[in-house]
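Checklist before submission:
- one chain only
- standard amino acids only
- sequence pasted in full

Submission:
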Amino acid sequence: MGDRFSYLPSVGLCLGIAFGAVVLLPQSAPHFKPIPVLLPALLVIPGLWTLQDLHSVPHWRSEDALWRHAATSAPDSAYAHRFRAMSLEYEKADLDGAAREYEAALQLNQISFQPMAGMVYECDLGLGRIALAKAHTQEAIDYFQAAVNSGPNLCPAYQALGALYFSQRDYGRSAQYFVQAVHANPQEVEARFFLGTCWMKLGQLAQAAGQFHAARDIDPTYFQAYFAEAAALEAAGDKAGATRVRREGAASANDR
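Returned file contents:
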């Protein structure tokens, strides 16, 4: 264990040890000479610590180095393999290596004393992203659906499925998943914006305007939502409402 949080709290203990060795001990034993006895130790111990630091510092040079070391030091840790997978996926773009680490994390979690549903969810989500990046669409859908099954109250897997079907122009199915994403996390502005766009594509203009309005209520700096809401209102024949929303968007932008 490399505990970097105990350095500052250890100052008091070190001062106490030094006070005892340099002040109290000579007072109780007048013939004791602390400097000749303590000096070699004060030279040897920091020297050993310096070597240890030089050995440890490279493990902290990047996310990939940190989690590679963690997975090597704790090969039975599902967490270490999961974060190693994320590092390979995002930092190194090593999709095959990331997939192996996600699968290792799933296996370790399955045989652990208390398997965690959250670990299964994140790993299935990661494997789905990798499959999608490799254009293995059905495999990606299967992984995202598995994530939904293990975490039905979580938003990201619904969003992933909604975005996947949106890219296929299957706006009806995409809307179904974005409805579930918004239900899981009503504060997720991107899910609301995508849902509003699906409703626009499907001709549900009032519902589209409502989602765009909700998105800008959550994040008043999400300027795309103002103009999208205005477009939905205008398409629905509410030109006055569209003009008002555009003015609100312009005023919000000026305030920034």
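Reviewer check: Residues 34-56 form the longest helix (23 residues).
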